[in-house]
Amino acid sequence: MTLVESRVSIVRGDITDLDVDAIVNAANSTLLGGGGVDGAIHRAAGPELLAECRTLGGASTGEAKITRGYRLKAKHVIHAVGPVWHEGDRREPELLASCYEKSLALARDHGLASIAFPSISTGAFRYPIELAAAVAQSTVRRFLEKNAVPDLVIFCCFSESDRLLYLDVARRELGFRW
Fold first, then answer.
1. Which CATH class is domain 3-174?
2. Which positions ≥6 away from 114 have C-beta within 8 Å?
3. Most buried pick, 35, 90, 150, 173, via CB within 10 A?
């Protein structure tokens, strides 16, 4: 196992239950909550999260902003706005990679040792999960090769089939030996 592999984990679970320094929210541009993981994070964190998000002025696609975690086990929430899938014709891979890069940079800059990502943009934004997993994992790998923090990156998959797909992408695309 390489140094990067030892810092990455792929799990099945509910991201709102993870006890990490930061969880990433697959947010919309308002940062004010929505469906899927976005809504689940806002509900679990409580109304204080929404109040803080109202002060942030939203975010553009590919950007990320950080808040406190409030009622979550996670100390922080990093809100990343992924792209809506348009058949890959509107810079979707670049914008998705930016979500991961900027989230990881926020974790590094705030000294956060652990961060958990959902599968950004693969729900209501319709990004094909296999393509999104490849972008996510290659972006995280490049970041970890150059940065000592965070110590641990978790890909938190809601379903077992998504977890198995993430594992397959890690082996096939990145040569990880899990």
1. alpha beta
2. 20, 21, 22, 150, 151, 152, 153, 154
3. 150
Band (178; pLDDT cuts 50, 70, 90): low
Structure-block tokens of residue 71: 């009622």
Which ranges of 31-91 would DSSP assign to H, the alpha helix? 36-45, 47-54
Rounded CA gap, 38 and 109, in Å?
A: 23
Instruction: Answer whether 0.70 is exceeded by the pTM.
Output: yes
Going by C-alpha positions, the residue among 78, 71, 76, 62 that lies closest to residue 139 is 62
Dihedral angle over CA of 129, 2, 64, 81, nearest 10: 0
Domain ranges of the chain: 3-174
